[in-house]
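Help needed: design a sequence for this.
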C-alpha cells in the first residue's frame, strides 16, 4: 500500500512538472536553461569579461555569451518519440560520446542527415561540405558506440516544434537508436543559438562540450573522428 501511495505521489509530481502546448503536445519545462544574467551563457555581453566562460561573441542580433569547449551542456529534458520523458544527462557516465543536433522540419540538410542515418541514403554525400570519412559515423551510431540526439525547435511552418513534430519526424525517419526531442519553448535554441542547421555539438560522457559550433556538422564530426580515433589507439 505504501509503495502504491509513493508511486501515486511521483505521478502527481510529474504531471505538475509538465507544460502542454496542446493536449497532444506535452513538454517538460527546462528551468535549468534560464540564464542568470549577466554572465551566463546566452546573456548579452560587450566583452569576454562579461561572461563566466570568457566567450563573448558578436552576432547580427547583438553580442552574447556563447558556449565553448569545456562548458557543461545543460540537462535538456523533453518527451521523446516514444512518449517517454528523456533527459540528455541520462546518457552521462556511460563511456560514450554524444552528438546533439539542433534541427527543424523546414531544414532540407536536416532531412538529408536523418535520411542518411536512417536509410543510408546517399543524397547528403553530394553536398560540398560532406567528407568521405564521415561514413564511419553511420557505423558508430548504429553500433551504439556513439549516441545521437535530434532536437527539433521548429516545424515545417517555422512555428515552435511540438510533440506532434517529433512524432511526424519519427514516422519519416524511424531509427530507434536516435532520440528525437522537441525544443518547444526554444530554451535550448536560445542557449546554443544555431545560425546554420543542422548545427551539431559534440559532448563527452560527462556531458562537457568537446566541440561546439552554431553552424553545420563539420566541427563536431571532425572532432569526433579525431577524438574517437585517439581513444581507440590508447
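Sure. Designed sequence:
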Amino acid at each position: 500500500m505504501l509503495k502504491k501511495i509513493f508511486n501515486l505521489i511521483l505521478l502527481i509530481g510529474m504531471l505538475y512538472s509538465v507544460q502542454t502546448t496542446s493536449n497532444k503536445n506535452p513538454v517538460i519545462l527546462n528551468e535549468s536553461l534560464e540564464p542568470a544574467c549577466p554572465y551566463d551563457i546566452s546573456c548579452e555581453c560587450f566583452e569576454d569579461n562579461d561572461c563566466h566562460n570568457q566567450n563573448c561573441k558578436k552576432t547580427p542580433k547583438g553580442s552574447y555569451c556563447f558556449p565553448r569547449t569545456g562548458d557543461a551542456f545543460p540537462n535538456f529534458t523533453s518527451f521523446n518519440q516514444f512518449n517517454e520523458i528523456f533527459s540528455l544527462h541520462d546518457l552521462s557516465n556511460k563511456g560514450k560520446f554524444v552528438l546533439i543536433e539542433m534541427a527543424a522540419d523546414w531544414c532540407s540538410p536536416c532531412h538529408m542527415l536523418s535520411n542518411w542515418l536512417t536509410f543510408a541514403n546517399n543524397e547528403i554525400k553530394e553536398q560540398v561540405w560532406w567528407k568521405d570519412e564521415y561514413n564511419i559515423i553511420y557505423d558508430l551510431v548504429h553500433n551504439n558506440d556513439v549516441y545521437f540526439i535530434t532536437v527539433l525547435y521548429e516545424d515545417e511552418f517555422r512555428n515552435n516544434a511540438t510533440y506532434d513534430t517529433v512524432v511526424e519526424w519519427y514516422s519519416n525517419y524511424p531509427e530507434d537508436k536516435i532520440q528525437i526531442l522537441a525544443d518547444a519553448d526554444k530554451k535550448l535554441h536560445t542557449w546554443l543559438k544555431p545560425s546554420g542547421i543542422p548545427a551539431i555539438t559534440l559532448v563527452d560522457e560527462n556531458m562537457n562540450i568537446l566541440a561546439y559550433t552554431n553552424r553545420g556538422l563539420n566541427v563536431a564530426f571532425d572532432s569526433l573522428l579525431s577524438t574517437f580515433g585517439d581513444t581507440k589507439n590508447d
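Helices lie at 2-16, 108-119, 135-142, 163-172, 187-192, 218-233.
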